[in-house]
Amino acid sequence: MMITVHHLEKSRSHRVLWLLEELEVPYQIKRYQREPTMLAPEALKKVHPLGKSPVITDGNQVVAESGAILEYLEEKYDHEFRLKVSDEASRLQCRYWLHYAEGSLMPLLVMKLIFGQMGKAPVPWLLRPVGAAFGKGVQKAFLDKQLKPHMQMIEQHLAANPWFAGQRFSIADIQMSFPLLALARRAGLEQMPASQKWLQTVQQRAAWQRAIDQGGELSLPG
């Protein structure tokens, strides 16, 4: 049975395609279009009860959540140790960033997106000036201050290490790619040269480009 990636356009499932391309594991894509609300369609609930992407099916196995999918695929299919890290310090770093991406960083970036959209449709046009002012206020007073130490930590780490797990490319880099793209889009990386360099490096990888070819351009809302 071939792996099926249930791929939602412009979503975090790009990371799954990227990993499969890095491992050169055969797969097929089942595509889903977002609703006008930008939410996932109801059809995804037939695959997983939450109706979210990414999710994969591998035979009888259904695996959801980005980090869980990446770990599953690496453990089952990385026979040539292309992405696995061996020493304990690197494994700990890999595990930390794998869970940090969605557990700590992405919630702040999602909130930044939400508050940044409060002056736009579907907010009623009469309320948009108030919504925009409120959204900017929350970002300045709370979110930007919360994001600052995260940005400093990421930049310090990448200034000292070429990859998130240390000296070797790993699934931690694949997992952190989406938050770094979102951070670039919503906060900017002008003060993060090492992070900019890392992002440019991963986007130049042949497997990244093949994943874009298969899944479509990755364009994140601001």
TrEMBL record:
The keyword Transferase applies. InterPro entries: Glutathione-S-Trfase_C-like, Glutathione-S-Trfase_C_sf, Glutathione_S-Trfase, Glutathione_S-Trfase_N, GST_C, Thioredoxin-like_sf. GO terms for cellular component: cytoplasm. Belongs to the GST superfamily. The gene is yfcG. Pfam families: GST_C (PF00043), GST_N (PF02798). It is an enzyme of class 2 (transferase). Residues 87-222 form the GST C-terminal domain. Keywords: Transferase. It catalyses: RX + glutathione = an S-substituted glutathione + a halide anion + H(+). This is glutathione transferase. Residues 1-81 form the GST N-terminal domain. Its EC number is 2.5.1.18. The lineage of its organism: Bacteria, Pseudomonadati, Pseudomonadota, Gammaproteobacteria, Enterobacterales. It comes from the Bacteria. GO terms for molecular function: glutathione transferase activity; peroxidase activity. SUPFAM superfamilies: GST C-terminal domain-like (SSF47616), Thioredoxin-like (SSF52833).
